[in-house]
Amino acid sequence: MLKNVWMCVVAVAVAVVSASATAQTQRPVRVLVASSPGGPSDVQGRLLTPKMSESLAKTLIVDNRPSANGLLATEICSKAEPDGATVCVGNSGTHAVNATLYLKLPYDPIRDFVPISQFSTTGMVLAANPRLPGATVQDLAAHATNNPGKTNIAIAGATGQLAGDALWARLGIKMNNVPYKGSSPSEMAVVAGESQLSLLTPLASAAHIKSGRMKAYGITSSKRHPLLPNVRTVAEQGVAGYDFQFWNGLFAPAKTPNRTVRALNKAVRDALNAPEVKERFAQLGLVIVGNMPEEFAQVVKTDLEKFRKIILESGITRL
Questions:
Q1: Which CATH class name applies to 125-237?
Q2: Phi, then psi, of 50 in degrees rounded to 5
Q3: Alpha helices, DSSP H only, in the chain?
Q4: Does residue 79 have a pLDDT over 50?
Q5: Where are the domains of the chain?
Q6: Under 8 Å between Cβ of 102 and 75
Q7: What angle do CA 38, 43, 44 make, to 5 degrees?
Q8: Residue 61 forms beta bridges with which residues?
Protein backbone atom coordinates (compact mmCIF):
# COMPACT_ATOMS: atom_id res chain seq x y z
CA MET A 1 0.00 0.00 0.00
CA LEU A 2 2.75 2.41 1.03
CA LYS A 3 4.68 1.47 -2.08
CA ASN A 4 1.70 2.32 -4.28
CA VAL A 5 1.24 5.69 -2.57
CA TRP A 6 4.93 6.49 -3.07
CA MET A 7 4.75 5.58 -6.74
CA CYS A 8 1.75 7.89 -7.14
CA VAL A 9 3.63 10.75 -5.47
CA VAL A 10 6.62 10.22 -7.77
CA ALA A 11 4.37 10.07 -10.83
CA VAL A 12 2.66 13.33 -9.87
CA ALA A 13 6.02 15.02 -9.26
CA VAL A 14 7.33 13.88 -12.65
CA ALA A 15 4.15 15.11 -14.31
CA VAL A 16 4.44 18.52 -12.63
CA VAL A 17 8.10 18.89 -13.66
CA SER A 18 7.29 17.77 -17.19
CA ALA A 19 4.38 20.19 -17.46
CA SER A 20 6.56 23.00 -16.10
CA ALA A 21 9.29 22.23 -18.65
CA THR A 22 6.75 22.14 -21.46
CA ALA A 23 5.25 25.44 -20.36
CA GLN A 24 8.76 26.93 -20.21
CA THR A 25 9.48 25.69 -23.75
CA GLN A 26 6.21 27.05 -25.05
CA ARG A 27 6.53 30.49 -23.45
CA PRO A 28 6.61 33.19 -26.13
CA VAL A 29 9.74 35.29 -26.43
CA ARG A 30 9.17 39.04 -26.09
CA VAL A 31 11.27 41.08 -28.52
CA LEU A 32 11.42 44.63 -27.19
CA VAL A 33 11.87 47.32 -29.86
CA ALA A 34 12.90 50.81 -28.83
CA SER A 35 11.06 52.61 -31.65
CA SER A 36 7.59 53.04 -33.09
CA PRO A 37 6.22 50.58 -35.68
CA GLY A 38 7.72 51.30 -39.11
CA GLY A 39 11.12 52.49 -37.89
CA PRO A 40 14.37 50.74 -38.95
CA SER A 41 14.68 48.72 -35.74
CA ASP A 42 11.04 47.66 -35.94
CA VAL A 43 11.16 46.72 -39.62
CA GLN A 44 14.25 44.56 -39.16
CA GLY A 45 12.83 42.91 -36.06
CA ARG A 46 9.57 42.06 -37.82
CA LEU A 47 11.39 40.69 -40.87
CA LEU A 48 13.51 38.36 -38.74
CA THR A 49 11.14 37.15 -36.02
CA PRO A 50 9.05 34.77 -38.19
CA LYS A 51 12.17 32.91 -39.33
CA MET A 52 13.61 32.97 -35.82
CA SER A 53 10.36 31.49 -34.51
CA GLU A 54 10.78 28.56 -36.89
CA SER A 55 14.38 28.00 -35.82
CA LEU A 56 13.62 28.19 -32.09
CA ALA A 57 10.25 26.42 -32.27
CA LYS A 58 8.89 29.28 -30.17
CA THR A 59 6.60 32.23 -30.79
CA LEU A 60 8.39 35.60 -30.89
CA ILE A 61 6.27 38.67 -30.19
CA VAL A 62 7.48 42.18 -31.09
CA ASP A 63 6.77 44.66 -28.28
CA ASN A 64 7.27 48.31 -29.32
CA ARG A 65 8.24 50.65 -26.46
CA PRO A 66 9.18 53.93 -28.17
CA SER A 67 10.95 56.65 -26.20
CA ALA A 68 13.59 59.31 -26.70
CA ASN A 69 16.87 57.63 -27.72
CA GLY A 70 15.42 54.19 -26.98
CA LEU A 71 15.84 54.39 -23.22
CA LEU A 72 12.56 52.73 -22.16
CA ALA A 73 12.75 49.44 -24.07
CA THR A 74 16.46 49.09 -23.39
CA GLU A 75 16.06 49.64 -19.66
CA ILE A 76 13.19 47.12 -19.49
CA CYS A 77 15.36 44.56 -21.27
CA SER A 78 18.30 45.21 -18.94
CA LYS A 79 16.15 44.40 -15.90
CA ALA A 80 14.32 41.37 -17.34
CA GLU A 81 14.86 37.84 -16.08
CA PRO A 82 17.80 36.25 -17.94
CA ASP A 83 15.78 33.22 -18.98
CA GLY A 84 15.53 33.77 -22.73
CA ALA A 85 11.96 35.01 -22.52
CA THR A 86 12.92 38.65 -23.14
CA VAL A 87 15.34 40.06 -25.70
CA CYS A 88 15.64 43.47 -27.34
CA VAL A 89 16.61 45.03 -30.64
CA GLY A 90 19.35 47.50 -29.80
CA ASN A 91 21.35 49.84 -31.99
CA SER A 92 24.44 52.00 -32.10
CA GLY A 93 22.53 54.65 -30.16
CA THR A 94 21.12 52.56 -27.34
CA HIS A 95 24.30 50.52 -26.80
CA ALA A 96 27.19 52.79 -27.81
CA VAL A 97 26.28 56.50 -27.97
CA ASN A 98 23.99 56.62 -24.91
CA ALA A 99 26.78 55.38 -22.65
CA THR A 100 28.49 58.78 -22.86
CA LEU A 101 25.66 61.00 -24.07
CA TYR A 102 23.77 60.49 -20.79
CA LEU A 103 25.34 61.44 -17.48
CA LYS A 104 22.99 59.04 -15.64
CA LEU A 105 21.98 56.23 -17.98
CA PRO A 106 19.47 53.81 -16.37
CA TYR A 107 21.37 50.79 -17.71
CA ASP A 108 24.95 49.81 -18.53
CA PRO A 109 25.31 48.80 -22.22
CA ILE A 110 28.19 46.42 -21.43
CA ARG A 111 27.46 45.09 -17.95
CA ASP A 112 23.69 44.61 -18.30
CA PHE A 113 23.54 42.81 -21.66
CA VAL A 114 24.74 39.84 -23.65
CA PRO A 115 25.14 40.69 -27.37
CA ILE A 116 23.49 38.03 -29.55
CA SER A 117 24.17 39.09 -33.15
CA GLN A 118 24.38 42.25 -35.24
CA PHE A 119 21.70 42.46 -37.94
CA SER A 120 22.96 45.16 -40.28
CA THR A 121 24.71 48.47 -40.75
CA THR A 122 24.00 51.57 -42.87
CA GLY A 123 24.75 55.26 -43.17
CA MET A 124 22.24 58.01 -42.30
CA VAL A 125 20.76 60.60 -44.62
CA LEU A 126 20.76 64.28 -43.69
CA ALA A 127 17.12 64.62 -44.74
CA ALA A 128 15.25 67.93 -44.84
CA ASN A 129 11.94 69.52 -45.57
CA PRO A 130 12.04 70.71 -49.22
CA ARG A 131 11.42 74.30 -48.13
CA LEU A 132 14.94 74.58 -46.74
CA PRO A 133 17.18 76.28 -49.32
CA GLY A 134 20.09 74.84 -51.29
CA ALA A 135 21.30 71.33 -52.04
CA THR A 136 24.66 70.95 -50.25
CA VAL A 137 25.95 70.78 -46.70
CA GLN A 138 27.53 74.19 -47.25
CA ASP A 139 24.15 75.61 -48.32
CA LEU A 140 22.63 74.27 -45.11
CA ALA A 141 25.46 75.77 -43.06
CA ALA A 142 24.97 79.16 -44.71
CA HIS A 143 21.23 79.07 -43.98
CA ALA A 144 21.82 78.16 -40.32
CA THR A 145 24.42 80.92 -39.99
CA ASN A 146 22.06 83.52 -41.46
CA ASN A 147 19.12 82.28 -39.36
CA PRO A 148 20.59 81.48 -35.95
CA GLY A 149 18.34 79.44 -33.64
CA LYS A 150 15.64 78.91 -36.28
CA THR A 151 16.45 75.43 -37.58
CA ASN A 152 15.04 72.41 -35.72
CA ILE A 153 16.42 68.91 -36.17
CA ALA A 154 14.15 66.01 -35.26
CA ILE A 155 16.14 63.54 -33.15
CA ALA A 156 15.14 59.97 -34.00
CA GLY A 157 17.82 58.36 -31.83
CA ALA A 158 21.17 58.86 -30.15
CA THR A 159 23.29 57.92 -33.19
CA GLY A 160 21.57 60.58 -35.29
CA GLN A 161 21.91 63.12 -32.50
CA LEU A 162 25.63 62.48 -32.18
CA ALA A 163 26.19 62.47 -35.95
CA GLY A 164 24.36 65.78 -36.18
CA ASP A 165 26.05 67.44 -33.22
CA ALA A 166 29.46 66.37 -34.49
CA LEU A 167 28.70 67.82 -37.93
CA TRP A 168 27.38 71.12 -36.59
CA ALA A 169 30.54 71.44 -34.49
CA ARG A 170 32.69 70.88 -37.59
CA LEU A 171 30.66 73.44 -39.56
CA GLY A 172 30.57 75.99 -36.73
CA ILE A 173 26.77 76.22 -36.62
CA LYS A 174 24.04 75.50 -34.07
CA MET A 175 20.78 73.60 -34.45
CA ASN A 176 17.87 73.02 -32.09
CA ASN A 177 17.63 69.33 -31.16
CA VAL A 178 14.00 68.23 -30.80
CA PRO A 179 13.65 64.65 -29.48
CA TYR A 180 11.04 62.28 -30.95
CA LYS A 181 10.14 58.71 -30.04
CA GLY A 182 11.89 57.03 -32.95
CA SER A 183 12.27 57.25 -36.69
CA SER A 184 8.64 57.31 -37.84
CA PRO A 185 7.61 60.36 -35.76
CA SER A 186 10.80 62.14 -36.87
CA GLU A 187 10.03 61.43 -40.52
CA MET A 188 6.52 62.85 -40.18
CA ALA A 189 7.84 65.92 -38.35
CA VAL A 190 10.15 66.72 -41.27
CA VAL A 191 7.52 66.04 -43.93
CA ALA A 192 5.06 68.30 -42.08
CA GLY A 193 7.65 71.05 -41.54
CA GLU A 194 7.34 70.75 -37.76
CA SER A 195 11.11 70.18 -37.76
CA GLN A 196 13.26 71.15 -40.73
CA LEU A 197 15.83 68.33 -40.57
CA SER A 198 16.55 64.84 -39.32
CA LEU A 199 19.26 62.21 -39.68
CA LEU A 200 17.44 59.11 -40.90
CA THR A 201 18.44 55.78 -42.41
CA PRO A 202 17.97 55.35 -46.16
CA LEU A 203 15.24 52.86 -45.25
CA ALA A 204 13.35 55.64 -43.44
CA SER A 205 13.97 58.44 -45.91
CA ALA A 206 14.38 57.09 -49.47
CA ALA A 207 10.67 56.92 -50.34
CA HIS A 208 10.10 60.47 -49.04
CA ILE A 209 13.09 61.78 -51.01
CA LYS A 210 11.97 60.10 -54.23
CA SER A 211 8.44 61.46 -53.82
CA GLY A 212 9.71 65.00 -53.22
CA ARG A 213 8.44 65.22 -49.65
CA MET A 214 12.04 65.43 -48.44
CA LYS A 215 15.39 66.49 -49.84
CA ALA A 216 18.84 65.14 -48.97
CA TYR A 217 21.87 67.28 -48.18
CA GLY A 218 24.19 64.30 -47.81
CA ILE A 219 24.81 60.90 -46.24
CA THR A 220 26.94 60.20 -43.17
CA SER A 221 28.74 57.06 -44.37
CA SER A 222 32.11 57.07 -46.10
CA LYS A 223 30.53 55.75 -49.32
CA ARG A 224 27.37 56.64 -51.22
CA HIS A 225 24.34 54.47 -50.66
CA PRO A 226 22.92 52.19 -53.41
CA LEU A 227 19.35 53.32 -52.64
CA LEU A 228 20.33 56.97 -53.13
CA PRO A 229 23.33 56.95 -55.50
CA ASN A 230 23.01 60.65 -56.34
CA VAL A 231 23.24 61.76 -52.70
CA ARG A 232 26.84 62.74 -51.97
CA THR A 233 28.54 61.81 -48.72
CA VAL A 234 29.21 64.55 -46.18
CA ALA A 235 32.93 63.77 -46.51
CA GLU A 236 32.71 64.31 -50.29
CA GLN A 237 31.41 67.80 -49.56
CA GLY A 238 34.50 68.89 -47.69
CA VAL A 239 34.03 67.53 -44.16
CA ALA A 240 37.10 65.28 -44.24
CA GLY A 241 36.99 62.04 -42.27
CA TYR A 242 33.31 62.35 -41.37
CA ASP A 243 31.85 58.82 -41.15
CA PHE A 244 28.94 57.67 -38.97
CA GLN A 245 27.25 54.29 -39.30
CA PHE A 246 23.98 53.11 -37.75
CA TRP A 247 23.62 49.44 -36.80
CA ASN A 248 21.00 47.18 -35.27
CA GLY A 249 21.31 43.91 -33.42
CA LEU A 250 19.79 41.59 -30.84
CA PHE A 251 20.63 41.65 -27.13
CA ALA A 252 19.60 39.59 -24.11
CA PRO A 253 19.81 40.48 -20.41
CA ALA A 254 23.14 39.74 -18.72
CA LYS A 255 23.52 36.22 -17.26
CA THR A 256 21.31 34.67 -19.94
CA PRO A 257 22.60 31.07 -20.21
CA ASN A 258 25.19 30.48 -22.90
CA ARG A 259 23.10 27.68 -24.43
CA THR A 260 20.21 30.16 -24.89
CA VAL A 261 22.53 32.80 -26.33
CA ARG A 262 23.91 30.32 -28.88
CA ALA A 263 20.42 29.20 -29.88
CA LEU A 264 19.31 32.81 -30.39
CA ASN A 265 22.47 33.59 -32.35
CA LYS A 266 21.86 30.65 -34.67
CA ALA A 267 18.23 31.72 -35.12
CA VAL A 268 19.29 35.26 -36.09
CA ARG A 269 21.93 34.05 -38.55
CA ASP A 270 19.56 31.49 -40.08
CA ALA A 271 16.95 34.23 -40.53
CA LEU A 272 19.47 36.62 -42.11
CA ASN A 273 20.54 33.90 -44.54
CA ALA A 274 17.01 33.17 -45.72
CA PRO A 275 16.82 34.22 -49.42
CA GLU A 276 13.66 36.32 -49.00
CA VAL A 277 15.14 38.13 -45.98
CA LYS A 278 18.42 38.81 -47.79
CA GLU A 279 16.49 40.19 -50.75
CA ARG A 280 14.35 42.43 -48.56
CA PHE A 281 17.34 43.76 -46.61
CA ALA A 282 19.07 44.57 -49.91
CA GLN A 283 15.95 46.40 -51.12
CA LEU A 284 15.98 48.42 -47.91
CA GLY A 285 19.65 49.30 -48.36
CA LEU A 286 20.82 47.40 -45.29
CA VAL A 287 24.20 45.66 -45.28
CA ILE A 288 23.71 42.30 -43.52
CA VAL A 289 26.24 41.34 -40.81
CA GLY A 290 25.09 38.29 -38.81
CA ASN A 291 28.17 37.91 -36.59
CA MET A 292 28.85 35.74 -33.53
CA PRO A 293 28.21 37.01 -29.95
CA GLU A 294 31.92 37.61 -29.29
CA GLU A 295 32.32 39.57 -32.53
CA PHE A 296 29.24 41.66 -31.82
CA ALA A 297 30.47 42.36 -28.29
CA GLN A 298 33.67 43.76 -29.78
CA VAL A 299 31.69 46.01 -32.16
CA VAL A 300 29.76 47.43 -29.20
CA LYS A 301 32.92 48.05 -27.15
CA THR A 302 34.78 49.62 -30.09
CA ASP A 303 31.92 51.95 -31.01
CA LEU A 304 31.28 52.88 -27.38
CA GLU A 305 34.87 54.10 -27.06
CA LYS A 306 34.80 55.75 -30.50
CA PHE A 307 31.67 57.73 -29.67
CA ARG A 308 32.87 58.52 -26.15
CA LYS A 309 35.95 60.19 -27.62
CA ILE A 310 33.88 62.16 -30.16
CA ILE A 311 31.44 63.38 -27.52
CA LEU A 312 34.06 64.40 -24.98
CA GLU A 313 36.44 66.03 -27.47
CA SER A 314 33.78 67.94 -29.42
CA GLY A 315 32.12 69.39 -26.31
CA ILE A 316 28.71 68.04 -27.27
CA THR A 317 26.16 68.72 -24.53
CA ARG A 318 25.58 65.64 -22.39
CA LEU A 319 22.07 64.88 -21.15
A1: alpha beta
A2: -60, -45
A3: 2-26, 40-56, 71-78, 92, 98-101, 137-146, 158-171, 183-192, 202-211, 258-273, 275-283, 293-314
A4: yes
A5: 29-122+246-314, 125-237
A6: no
A7: 160
A8: 30
314 against 278, higher pLDDT = 278
> In sequence order, what are the beta bridge partners of 150?
none
Answer left, alpha or beta for residue 70, where phi above 0 means left and psi between -120 and 50 means alpha: left
Q: What is the pTM of this model?
A: 0.76
Region 14-31: mean pLDDT is 56
Is there a common fold for 29-122+246-314 and 125-237?
yes
Amino acid at 191: V
Domain 29-122+246-314 annotated CATH 3.30.70.20: no
Measured CA to CA, the distance from residue 49 to residue 56 in angstroms comes to 10
Round to whole Å and give the CA distance between 48 and 27.
19
Residue 138, exposed/middle/buried by CB under 10 A (0-12, 13-18, 19+)? middle
Q: How many CB atoms lie within 10 A of CB 129?
A: 21
Amino acid identity of residue 68, one-letter, is A
Distance between CA atoms of residues 306 and 314, nearest Å: 12
Residue at 248: amino acid letter: N
